[in-house]
Write a structure and sequence with these properties.
The structure holds two protein chains of two kinds. By secondary structure, chain A is mainly β. In chain A, about 5% of the residues lie in helices and about 55% in strands. Chain A is built from seven helices and 39 strands. Chain A has a 22-stranded antiparallel beta barrel. In chain A, strands 3-8-9-6-7 form a five-stranded mixed beta sheet. Chain A has a four-stranded mixed beta sheet with strand order 19-24-25-28. The longest helix of chain A is centred in the first third of the chain and has 14 residues, at about 5-15. Chain B folds into two domains: about 1-30; about 35-180, Response regulator (Rossmann fold), CATH 3.40.50. Helices cover about 40% and strands about 25% of the residues of chain B. In chain B, the strands form two sheets. Chain B has an eight-stranded mixed beta sheet with strand order 3-4-2-5-6-7-8-10. In chain B, about 45% of the residues are buried. The chains are: A mainly beta, B alpha/beta.
Chain lengths: ~675, ~180
């Protein structure tokens, strides 16, 4: 294609562009990895790239590492990555964030499966049991650290977790697994791929699990506020080759999950049913790789906060993008996206909050020389908020007109990479990320509390919330020695307009003659700055024995707005972010045997007390996980013994339930 | 908001990183040891990304034009026959002047072989030419160079892609270096 034709395309397409979530399933990850000797990814720019050349701070966790870890959940796997904070608050749910600022219902992490969002859009949180994926069908988990909203849009502010499954078009994988363990652990899963003729391929997976909740050991949480976690997940993924260079991908999934989790400083039980459907048409044309995609996620949830809260959240996304090269040195992506998101009000019903988002974005990757590459990405999102329906009596902000509002924000990522040798990479990057307020914060949560007759406190969302903005600077250096690979990252984040937790304890709208007795409203309550350093190292002692280590230091300084108590606002990030976290691990694999041991360390931090939400010390802890496995090669059967939190019967990792030792025996067969 | 790239301490960090990077550059030793069996395995994988795709059984012409290069071709032929990726490689030792009638689906130039005949074959027969010599790709006389010593490097001639119509899909083009 000539430059002039591409220029025409840029001009023409930008006028009607709609899109952009990185979708990469037309990339044969396995074959490309075998060519380059390293994983490939699309999570940095939307363009397929070798992991070592991606202009982002990224860590890729391979299928082999997932299997060898013996972890039974994705948060367990993620906490082995450098700089990942995990609040292990119950047997079935953890909150995950990148480099500090973790909180209950962690809303600053974008979690995707094959580029489709799987976090729950009503609050921006991820309930890991609802993810419609089995560990055995994951090719790799891509962890992008730092803001990525210029590529992915809202929510990708602390980082992005993109879970890449095996692709039935390119990969053959068939695994059935059964697992039992102490404390009532029982789980089973199957993942299989097949082809019908030369043009149709499919991946089907299903899994179910249950276990006993960690024991209640203190006055709180009450036994009635927790429940044994259990889940069922199903996913179907099909690829139809419509023409030699055009494919249609259709996916559907169902998750039915029950788990308890910390919500602010208390526990609640959630019963969630999540369904999704996706269709993506990808064509490799003379004008580049063009992809049109649409998907819908629907959440039906029932939370028990004393009384039931039933939310139905529907998210519909349609996107169009084009990815192409100009000459040998320039890769361009342009696109646009439309998103509709709606949520009913609860527990006081009668209202519906929603928004439409129109987005336009672009990415330019320029190989300036053999050694220097620059990447720039820009995205503009325009969110149009609205509300319909009724309000509780005598509530402040009791008019839908307050919700007629537009939020328009740009996101950007700029990186310069210098590779003076094949073994050295220096990267300097700048990013601006945007976290839009969630629908719960914008009014989906609507509560009238009457502690005694004649006295009512309201808690409703705030239509005037500003988005939280993060600006991130990072400088990194990676070097490959003959005996190890070493990486060092220096980073600085500047947050503005961080919000209070949605169960804020602050009455910040006083009573008037026309309202009830005051209102607690979610507000923008502070700015914050974080600086830190991360060191990671991996190496091999012998062909069969590898080792790894990482250490991340973060220092958070909050700047609360006038009159704000960050503790009662559940936004005391300076105290609730540990300064230190890290891992040390060994993996041994030879012939039929595999063994792995990992120690995860978290330094002292504070978190909200279950009784009065004051800040309570959580002492530094180290948790040990391990696995040993033997594979019968001829039959494809693997026997494995694994465990987590192995050093003690129960361990204080948060201010909530104490993490219990869990041990599993797993029998799996692949064919 | 402080700029992390400014100030005395940050400047020291920057200088330290640059020093380490330059030290790494000074210690690295580029190597060019001709095409190896490992390179051939990568060649088989690369064939899967070609557009148009070759047949599943690929007759790979190992092209020589001297006694030394013939010895290299003979040795390599014994090592690379068989499955490579989704393809079966059938190596065939071919003299450069006989390339036109060799019936090859792909060409692999031995060390030091003149690429003239291969360039003609790429254009006229629309088949790929592989080499370990990146200079031949940069000059537009061979289509693809592969180096697996250390980090895998794949160079593709943009001009020869256009001239021959043999190239790669958009996704693969974004992961390689086109010159």
């Amino acid at each position: 294609m000539t430059i002039s034709m591409k220029s025409l395309l840029i001009g023409g397409t930008s006028a009607l562009c709609f899109s952009l979530v990185a979708q990469a399933q037309s990339v044969d990850y396995g074959a490309a990895e075998q060519v380059f000797g390293e994983p490939v990814t699309t999570s940095a720019t939307g363009s397929p790239q070798r992991a070592s050349e991606a202009p982002a701070d990224m860590q890729i966790i391979s299928a082999t590492e997932i299997r060898q870890s013996g972890e039974t959940s994705i948060p367990g796997i993620l906490q082995r990555a450098a700089g990942i904070d995990v609040l292990n608050e119950s047997a079935g749910q953890s909150d995950v964030n990148v480099r500090g600022y973790d909180q209950t219902g962690s809303p600053r992490l974008l979690v995707l499966i094959n580029g489709r969002q799987v976090y729950l859009d009503h609050y921006g949180e991820t309930v890991w049991q609802t993810l419609p994926v089995q560990l055995s069908e994951i090719r790799q988990i891509e962890v992008v650290k730092g803001p990525g909203s210029a590529l992915f849009g809202f929510n990708a502010v602390s980082g992005v977790i993109n879970i890449i499954t095996y692709n039935p078009k390119f990969d053959k994988t068939n695994v059935i697994t059964a697992q039992v363990g102490n404390n009532g652990q029982q789980s089973g899963s199957v993942a299989t791929t097949f082809k019908l003729g030369d043009t149709f391929s499919a991946r089907i997976s299903a899994g179910a699990q249950k276990q006993h909740e960690w024991a209640t050991t203190g006055a709180l949480p009450l036994a009635s506020s927790v429940a044994d976690p259990m889940s069922f997940n199903f996913a179907a993924d099909t690829v139809t080759q419509l023409a030699s260079k055009t494919e249609l991908r259709v996916e559907g999934s169902l998750a039915n999950s029950r788990q308890d989790a910390m919500s602010g400083s208390s526990y609640s039980v959630g019963r969630l049913i999540v369904t999704s459907g996706l269709a993506a048409l990808t064509s490799d044309t003379d004008y580049g790789m063009i992809e049109a995609k649409a998907y819908r996620n629907q959440l039906s949830s029932k939370y028990i906060f004393g009384s039931p809260i039933n939310w139905v959240n529907t998210t519909t996304v349609a996107s169009l993008q084009d990815l192409f090269k100009i000459g040998a040195d320039h890769t361009i992506r342009i696109g646009g996206e439309f998103r509709h998101n709606s949520l009913n009000t609860a527990p006081v019903t009668g209202g519906k909050v929603g928004y439409d988002v129109f987005s336009a974005s672009g990415m330019w990757n320029w190989a300036v020389t053999d050694q220097v590459t620059t990447t720039a990405a820009l995205r503009i999102d325009s969110l149009n908020l609205s509300r319909t329906g009724t309000f509780p009596a005598r509530v402040p902000l009791g008019s839908n007109s307050y919700w007629n509002r537009t939020i328009t924000e740009p996101s950007a990522n700029v990186t310069v990479a210098w590779r003076p040798t094949a073994e050295d990479t220096v990267r300097a990057s700048f990013a601006r990320g945007v976290q839009a307020p969630s629908l719960i914060e914008l009014g989906g949560f609507q509560l009238a509390q009457t502690p005694f007759p004649g006295f009512t406190i309201d808690l409703i969302g705030n239509p005037n919330l500003s988005p939280s903005i993060v600006t991130n600077y990072e400088l990194s250096y990676d070097h490959g020695f003959s005996w190890a690979k070493v990486g060092v990252r220096f980073f600085l984040q500047d947050w503005t307009d961080l919000k209070s937790g949605f169960l804020t304890k602050t009455i910040n709208i006083p009573a008037t003659s026309t309202t009830n007795n005051g209102m607690m409203v979610i507000k923008n309550v502070l700015d914050s700055e974080m600086k830190g350093v991360e060191v990671n190292i991996t190496g091999k002692l012998t062909d069969s024995l590898s080792w790894r280590g990482d250490y991340t230091y973060t220092d958070v300084k909050d700047s609360p707005y006038a009159g704000v108590n960050t503790t009662t606002a559940l936004a005391a990030f300076q105290s609730t972010t540990p300064k230190y976290r890290g891992n040390v691990g060994l993996t041994w694999a030879t012939g039929a045997w595999e063994a792995d041991i990992n120690v995860h360390y978290v330094g002292d931090y504070k978190f909200y007390n279950m009784v009065d939400a004051s800040l309570q010390n959580v002492k530094a802890y180290a948790s040990l996980s391990s696995r040993v496995a033997y594979r019968l090669e001829e039959s494809g059967v693997t026997l494995a013994l694994s465990g987590q939190n192995l050093t003690s019967d129960r361990q204080v990792q948060t201010t909530g339930l104490q993490a219990e030792r869990r041990v599993q025996f797993t029998l799996s067969k692949d064919w | 908001m402080k700029n992390p790239l400014a100030g005395h301490e940050s400047g020291r960090i920057l200088r330290s990183i640059a020093l380490f990077a330059l030290l790494g550059a000074a210690l690295s030793t580029p190597a060019d040891a001709g095409f190896t069996a490992k390179d051939a395995q990568i060649l088989g994988r690369v064939l899967g990304f070609l557009d148009p795709a070759p047949p599943s059984s690929v007759t790979l012409a190992l092209v020589y034009d001297s006694a030394a290069s013939k010895a290299e071709a003979d040795a390599l032929a014994g090592q690379i026959a068989g499955k490579s990726g989704n393809f079966t490689l059938v190596p065939k030792v071919v003299k450069a002047s006989d390339l036109g009638g060799s019936g090859a689906n792909a060409i692999l130039l031995m060390d030091g072989v003149s690429a003239g005949a291969a360039t003609d074959a790429v254009k006229s027969k629309k088949i790929p030419c592989f080499t370990s010599d990146s200079a031949l790709v940069k000059s537009g006389t061979c289509l693809i160079s592969i180096k697996t010593d250390g980090k895998v490097e794949i160079l593709v001639s943009g001009s020869l892609q256009k001239a021959s119509g043999v190239g790669f899909g958009a996704a693969f083009r974004m992961m390689i270096t086109e010159v």
